[in-house]
Fold each of these.
Amino acid sequence: MEGKLASLRIALWGASGRMGEAVLDCLGEQSEMSLVAAVVSEGSTWRGRLLRERFPSAPAEQRFLCARDCPPCDLILDFSGAAGFAEALSTALRFGAALVSGSTGLSRQDEERLEQASARIPVLWAANFSLGLIVLLALAEQAAAWLSDFDVELLDLHHRGKRDAPSGTARALGEAVIRAKESQGCHARAVFQREGARGEGEVGMVSLRGGDAVGEHRLFLLGKGERLELAHQVSDRRVFARGALRAASCLAGRPPGRYRLESMLPSLVGPVELDRVGSRPV
Ligand SMILES: NC(=O)c1ccc[n+]([C@@H]2O[C@H](COP(=O)([O-])OP(=O)(O)OC[C@H]3O[C@@H](n4cnc5c(N)ncnc54)[C@H](OP(=O)(O)O)[C@@H]3O)[C@@H](O)[C@H]2O)c1
């Protein structure tokens, strides 16, 4: 089915979590979307309870439910982390629904499953749904290519409850830097822990965790006698939620394939278009 759906039926995975809450907060802004399921894990303390307990504006009878009780939907929006991702994906395949996922800390097997699924359904995974971060990714790659003899180091700072380190975004930034350096014929490799001296070509990543910090990424390009810093900070999770909902509205109804958030950048100045990458038509 090509084009947008009149009313997009969304099932939200990880609905009881921090991101789930932000998405539920922002869903009211989307008149063309309706929430058909707020999905939690089988053993969740929220399973079976009314959404109204946490969200006074939720429909009277809507309850948190688990994957096997999820009704048919057009799109699954997944923020359940590595714990729920596989189930979100298999449910999307079962319904022929699109999948937008922001879950990080995925295993290699999860990534392979996502790639295979893109032959049957439209999928979009992004480590970070903020527009500022998409710009930072592009800037980081360009800066690392132009300043290819500078050393590059990365820092990510997140709240104490974050399960993965480095963050998915830090990994994506590191990959962009390594790609840029290799394009200039330089050897580069990511280093997640360091003891002792810095090795040649290392792109070091440091993860700080604590308090309620929503998310900060800082890239240091360190040269002789000068340094360039690129930084991005999020203070409100609804930035991610709105980005993910915007991606959802673009993705629904598209042909199967793997889509990239980067191509949403034109939406800052004009209509949104998504590029399809690595798709295998059914
Ligand atoms: N891409 C982005 O822009 C972006 C931004 C922020 C965060 N993230 C990522 O999004 C994920 C969630 O972050 P968060 O801060 O919201 O974490 P969180 O507060 O721990 O929420 C995750 C929720 O998923 C639920 N869950 C666990 N297993 C599940 C399953 N099998 N099915 C359905 N739900 C399940 C858990 O709830 P129950 O125990 O109640 O089931 C938990 O509350 C993380 O991977 C994080 O890194 C991405």
Amino acid sequence: MNSIFTRRSIREYDSRPVEPEKVDKILRAGMQAPSAMNRQPWEFLVVTNPEMIQTIAALSPYGKPAARAPMVLVPMVNLQTAGEKNRFWVQDLSASVQNILLQIAEEGLGGCWMGIYPDEDRTKKLHDALGLPEQVLPFALISIGHGLQENRFVDRFVPENVHYETY
Ligand SMILES: Cc1cc2nc3c(=O)[nH]c(=O)nc-3n(C[C@H](O)[C@H](O)[C@H](O)COP(=O)(O)O)c2cc1C
């Protein structure tokens, strides 16, 4: 659980590819997340093609970390799997992304979460660029690589933000 405390957004990487066995563990961690009604509405696209990485990185104004990475993971929601009236899928996908980021750190790698959904422009452009079916939406971009910066502890505990019994 140390990676909860040491995980950082790592935005620069060396040129080494990510080892397949590490990718497997990262994907397994993503699918291990809790989800409303245990629907597990997530799917993942693993992108290593350099041209495709440049294309998708350019679709977010804050997508630079993706442009520098040897691998980009696109967590996606399948709205059919989530269920028509289920709006909790955003939380399901967020939990999955956090698991993925923690496993990235655990594997000694660096990663960064780049927001796509609910920004309508970014979501639609990425959906179309990836040629996704209508019921599948891209949720985020996660860049992964051997980081040029270290994961390291930053203390964020703010006692004033904790309220006991009453606000
Ligand atoms: C929903 C979400 C969207 C984010 N989008 C971006 C992004 O587009 N580009 C980026 O470089 N970082 C992005 N980040 C990373 C945050 O900037 C980062 O988590 C924050 O500055 C705290 O730093 P840390 O991750 O090192 O603890 C995003 C983080 C979250 C949770």
